[in-house]
Model the fold of this input.
Amino acid sequence: METIKSNAAFLCNYEVMQILQQLKDNTQKKHKREASLATVTYETIHYLQDTECKIQSAQAIQKFLEAMKKYKLTKTEKLMMVNTPPRTELEIQLIVQESEERLSESDVKDIISLVNEVLPPTECS
Amino acid sequence: MFVLTEMKDVIRVTPEHFHLSLTESITTLLNRKLANKVVLNIGLCIALFDITDIGHSYILPGDGSSHTEVKFRYIVFRPVIEEILIGKIRSCSREGVHVTLGFFDDILIPVNALQHPSRFDETDQAWVWEYPKEDGDKHDLFMDSGESIRFRITSEAFEESLPAGPPGTECTGQTVAPYKLVGGINEPGLGLLSWWEAPEQDDGDDNDVDDNDE
Done:
C-alpha cells in the first residue's frame, strides 16, 4: 500500500458525521457487518453526536465560511471555528494564533455575533 | 481533525466474491483492511471516502484471485498540531491526564502541560488545579473522569508495532499504542469546559463549583 497524498483535503466534523451516518444506514440494510468498521463508525458517530456538528447544516457552514473570508484566517483556523464554534473572545484567542495583532476588537465581536447567528448554540450545551 | 488521504493499493479479490460488483468488493476489502487501524505517519483510518480510480485487474499464475490496482481516498483522524479539541477525561494518573475521544484513547496531557499550579490528589485519584483567589487563598478545581475537557494538541508520535507472535503463544511483545497524541491545557480557556463557562461569576459563586467537585 502506498500513500499518494497524506493530506488531500480537510473534512469538518459535519461532513464526517454525514458520511458515517450514511454508511451506517447502508450497512444495516444489507445485513453485512464488518466488525472493525462497525466499531469505529459507531464510536465516531457517538463522539460527533456530542459536538455541535449535530445541529449544523451544509448551508450554514457555507454561509459562515463565506462571511469569514474577509478576516484572512488560515484554513485550519476556520476549520476549528466550524468544528468548535467560538462563543467568547477567549475561544477566539485560542483558535487564532496571535489574534491580538491579526484581529481588531470589533472583528472579534463581529465573529462572535456571526457565529451565534449562523451556527446557533445548542440549548443543552 | 479529520483529513482525506489519497492512497493506492492492489486489492486481491478471491473467486468467491466474483459474483459481487468489483466496486462493492473493493469497498468491503478496503474497509476490512483499514477501518479502525493506524497507518504509520498517516493517522487513524476511519472509513472509505471514495474510489478515484480502478485499474485493470490481473490474474497471476497459480492464484485464481483477481488483483486490481485502486486509488482511493480514506477518511483519517489526524488532528493538526496546535488544533483545539474537546474530549472526555478517561483517567488521571501520576503521569498526567488521559483523555479519550471515544474512538481514540491514546491522548495524554502530561504534568508539565497542566494548568499551573496543579497537584495530584491521591485519595480521589484526580488532578487538581489550585486556582489562586484574589485574597491569597486557593480554590481547588478537580479534574474528574468523564468531564469534558478542551485541550490543544502539542505533539504526535507514531510507533511501529511489531507483529504479534503466532496465535496461542504468549510471546507477544508488549502492546504499544501505535499513534499517541500529547496535549496541553496550560493556557487560559483550556481545561474543563465548566471552568470557563461563566468567568464573571467565578469569584462570587465558589460554592456552586465546590458542590460539583464533591
Summary: The helical segments of chain B are 22-34, 206-213.
